[in-house]
Amino acid sequence: MTALVNVIVMLGMLVIVPLGLRLVPGPEPGAVRRLWPLLALPGAVSLWLPRGALATALAAVYALATAALALHAPARLRRTRSLAPPEIAVLTALVAPAVAGVALVAERSGRELLGFDLEILALTVPHFHFAGFAAALVAGLVCRSARGATGRFAALSVPAGTLLVLAGYFTGDWVELAGAVLLTAGMWAVALLTWRDVRTGRAERLIRRLLGVSAAVLVATMLLALSWALGEATGLPHPSLTWMAATHGLGNALGFALCSLAALLRLAEKTT
């Protein structure tokens, strides 16, 4: 599982976050966006090194990059003075990688953090790149494109569900299950809006296909997340973490995050 999770995390660090930062509506984190590839590379290298001082130092470089991105959120809020649902989703996306950065430093140092073992810390890193950053950003962008109650629900429930899952790490499996339910509902709303509103009427076939794949993948991957959280809370049979990484994790990374961000970026380029 470790190698697969590392590949997924590398995709998040080196591809998903840079793609997403190009889609952040203005004011954009320009300096952080330009320096991101240089700052993310040490974090990616740290994944493959034995735990210790060198891996921790390289992970810390990446954590500083995520902290700089997170600091853009309050600066953005001061400039926009908006807490509309799409803006809340974008602010969540800017802050989420910092959680992954802290978890990465702790895991690479071989030290448990706040009572969480190394396996949970390792899985926190991809979760806050994809559920925290990519999903929140896409929800905010979809809400801007497909206005209405469903869009507002998606833009609010994805950040709220991600934060509730994080709270469940501290308070117990039932809170984590509630977060998984809310996050799944929000992601399914994103899938519905992507399929129904954002995907339709676009002239370019590639954009339609990428958005269609991202919407379809979300239905399956979030059902897996829901079944895992339910099993953890109730003791019912559920997929193993290895299986979840190979299905839910890989599906969300490639099928949802990469396809949706690539399509939305292409769409933005065609409309400018």
Name the poorly predicted regions: none
Briefly note the CATH topology name.
Cytochrome C Oxidase, Chain A
Mean pLDDT, nearest integer? 89
Beta strand count: 0
The biggest beta sheet reads: none
Count the DSSP helices: 9
Q: State the separation between the terminal residues, measured CA to CA.
A: 42 Å
Helix content, binned percent: over 70%
Radius of gyration: 18 Å
Name the shape in a single word. Answer: globular
Overall CATH architecture: Up-down Bundle
Percent of residues in beta strands: under 5%
- H/E element order: HHHHHHHHH
Any idea what the CATH superfamily is called?
Answer: Cytochrome c oxidase-like, subunit I domain
Structural class computed from helices and strand pairing: mainly alpha
**Mind telling me the CATH class?**
Mainly Alpha
- Give the count of structural domains: 1
Protein name: YndJ family transporter
InterPro entries: YndJ-like (IPR025450)
Keywords: Membrane, Transmembrane, Transmembrane helix
Supply the key terms.
272 residues; mainly alpha; Cytochrome C Oxidase, Chain A; 9 helices; 0% strand; globular; transmembrane helix; transmembrane; YndJ-like; YndJ family transporter
Explain the overall architecture.
The structure is a single chain. The protein is mainly alpha-helical and 272 residues long. The chain has one domain (2-271): Cytochrome c oxidase-like, subunit I domain (Cytochrome C Oxidase, Chain A, Up-down Bundle), CATH 1.20.210. Helices cover 85% and strands 0% of the residues. The chain is built from nine helices and no strands. α3 (53-80) runs antiparallel to α4 (85-109), α5 runs antiparallel to α6 (149-171) and α6 packs antiparallel against α7 (173-198). It is globular. The model has no long low-confidence stretch (mean pLDDT 89).
